[in-house]
Q: What sequence folds into this?
């Protein structure tokens, strides 16, 4: 039977409050385990490999799965991450590649080099749709997946909504572009954007239409995945509501909403989508 695993991001557990208070890492892992998440994501954009390895006991203590977000600045930068990931039995390594040629034809050897390297190391990889990386632009990424059939994506659609400033309601033409991304995505990330802000508060009524839009895309993506995946396959959905300056703050520097509760709301909605698709 196909399964959905919902993960939380360790980076998203950071508070970054003006008073400097942060929860201990152990408490963050306890909260995630108690909330019923299947695992935690490590983000190498905010910690190095040694700091990441120091979290292993928490994964083992709570029986949580692991995935790793990598930000390789050179081709070879990815290899030590792939090797480290084996110690976590990582679901996959998610690449936000910092090697960023301007031309699509120059991007293609970069993507192929990382795919070959992952094959050599025996570690699954995905390429996240993300700003400020090799998949920065929606149009270029569409060309890449056409040119490289083995390139598989992790869809964080918030970046592309902002990248292309999609108007609401989403046009049929823009939706068709997103559908092409979803049809090549093997994992999904939970953040809600509008056309000007990469992360909006889903608990605010003015943003409900955007939450509904993203939920519609997550439905399409999960349905597409179910249609093409094996009967015993597992799909990962990562709740990744980032701390400030992703999260919007007021004049006092404190956030305007509770990201932890909003992540749980996303988790509940995605699990509901999955259940509905299963019954269909």
A:
């Amino acid at each position: 039977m196909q399964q959905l695993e919902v993960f939380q991001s360790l980076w998203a557990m950071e508070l970054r409050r003006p008073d400097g208070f942060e929860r201990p890492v152990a408490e963050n892992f306890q909260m995630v385990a108690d909330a019923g998440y299947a695992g935690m994501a490590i983000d190498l954009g905010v910690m190095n490999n040694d700091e990441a390895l120091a979290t292993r006991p928490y994964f083992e203590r709570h029986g949580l799965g692991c995935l790793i977000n990598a930000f390789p600045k050179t081709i070879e930068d990815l290899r030590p991450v792939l090797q480290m990931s084996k110690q976590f039995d990582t679901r996959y390594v998610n690449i936000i590649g910092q090697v960023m040629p301007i031309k699509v034809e120059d991007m293609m050897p970069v993507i192929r080099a990382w795919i070959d390297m992952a094959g050599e190391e025996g570690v699954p990889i995905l390429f996240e749709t993300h700003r400020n990386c090799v998949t920065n632009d929606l149009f270029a990424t569409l060309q890449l997946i056409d040119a490289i059939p083995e390139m598989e994506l992790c869809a964080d659609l918030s970046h592309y909504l902002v990248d292309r400033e999609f108007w609401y309601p989403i046009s049929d033409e823009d939706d068709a572009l997103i559908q092409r991304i979803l049809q090549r995505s093997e994992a999904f990330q939970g953040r809600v954007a509008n056309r000007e802000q990469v992360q909006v508060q889903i608990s605010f009524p003015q943003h409900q239409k955007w939450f509904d839009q993203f939920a519609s895309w997550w439905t399409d993506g999960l349905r597409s995945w179910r249609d093409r995946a094996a009967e015993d396959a597992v799909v990962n959905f990562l709740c990744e509501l980032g701390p400030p300056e992703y999260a919007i703050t007021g004049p006092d520097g404190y956030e305007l909403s509770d990201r932890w509760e909003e992540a749980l709301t996303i988790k509940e909605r995605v699990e509901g989508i999955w259940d509905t698709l299963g019954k269909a």
Notes: Strands lie at 3-9, 39-43, 65-70, 93-95, 125-128, 153-155, 185-190, 234-239.
